[in-house]
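Data card: per-record layout.
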Amino acid sequence: MPHFRFSISTRYRKELEQQLRTAHQLGYLRRVKYLLTILAVMDNQSYEQVAGVLKLNLKTVEEWVRLFLCYGTKGAPRRKSPGRPPKLTKTQQEELARLIEAGPSAAGYSAGGWREAARPRVDP
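The structure for this 124-residue chain is written out next.
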């Protein structure tokens, strides 16, 4: 993806800086990083520099700049991506929690703790 350099009016820049201060005060780290990314790119920082300083993936910087160019500040990420879906169903998770709470003896192990139950038995 090509890297873009752009500039905005002084008034719009001040508005972005105000949004940055507000996001910082409210503790919205993702929004703070988004706004810092946009401001840094506008100040002619390379995408690689921005990614390194803010500890972001280069693709994230590119995507955030694209979103800003298309939608302005309304393109900002609102929430963290949910990540990989769980492999266990809700019912399986609840059953596993009950099994762990009951302890290894209820699961058929003779050991007193889960670490001992998990060790392979070595016969002499």
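Known properties of this structure: Helices lie at 10-26, 29-42, 47-54, 58-71, 90-102, 114-118. The chain is about 55% helix and 0% strand.

See the next section for split statistics.
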